[in-house]
Each structure stands twice: as C-alpha cells, then as structure tokens.
Design brief:
Number of domains: 2
Radius of gyration: 22 Å
Helix content: over 70%
Shape: elongated
Number of helices: 4
Length: 108
C-alpha cells in the first residue's frame, strides 16, 4: 500500500456475511497465497481507491452485470403489473401478491 495516510483511528470495520463453503474456499486460497484476510482486503480497498486498472476493470464488469439484473427486474415487475391489471384484482390482492413475490425472490 503505497500511499497510506496515517490519521484517524484504526477502528472502522467492513463486515459482510458469507456461507460456510465460500468462506472455507476463501481461507484456503488466502493460505495458498500466504495472505491474511486483513492484508487481502486492505490491498483490494487500496487498489479500488487508487483506481488500479485491474480492479477497475473487474468493477466495471460486475457493475454491468448488476445493471443488466436491474433492467431484467424492472421488465419482470412491469410485465407482472400488466398481468395483474388484466386479472382485475383489487389493491389489497395485488399488494399480497407483491409481498409473496418479494419474500420468495428478494433479488427482484
């Protein structure tokens, strides 16, 4: 990390959850590369902040995938609303259907 600026407290945590299998695979890869989790994430964050070309290319790739999913979700929701309109359901019934869909497919 070439440009570490030493100010502020070292107490900010970046936390997310992952399933057991992926976590185990991650730990194995880190050990193969002789890295600690903290080293790995600090280098990734630094590369992202500094605009590392490789990391930026990867971010652009996943950003596009995310945009494609959002577009598909909007189309699906729009189509679902059209179908509901055709079924002539009242507002309460429509809300119940959307609640059920949201529970079963939170990514939409």
């Amino acid at each position: 990390m070439a440009h570490d600026i030493d100010y502020g407290n070292l107490n900010k945590r970046i936390v997310f959850t992952e399933n057991d299998h992926r976590h185990a695979k991650f730990i194995i890869r880190l050990r193969q590369d002789s890295l600690k989790q903290s080293e790995f994430f600090r280098h990734i964050v630094t590369g992202y902040i500094d605009g590392n070309e490789n990391i930026q290319n990867f971010v652009d790739e996943i950003k596009q995938q995310s945009q494609n999913r959002k577009t598909k979700s909007r189309r699906t929701i729009s189509r679902g609303q059209e179908i509901l309109k055709d079924l002539a359901l009242d507002e309460g019934e429509i809300e119940n259907i959307f609640d059920i869909l949201e529970e079963e497919h939170p990514e939409l």
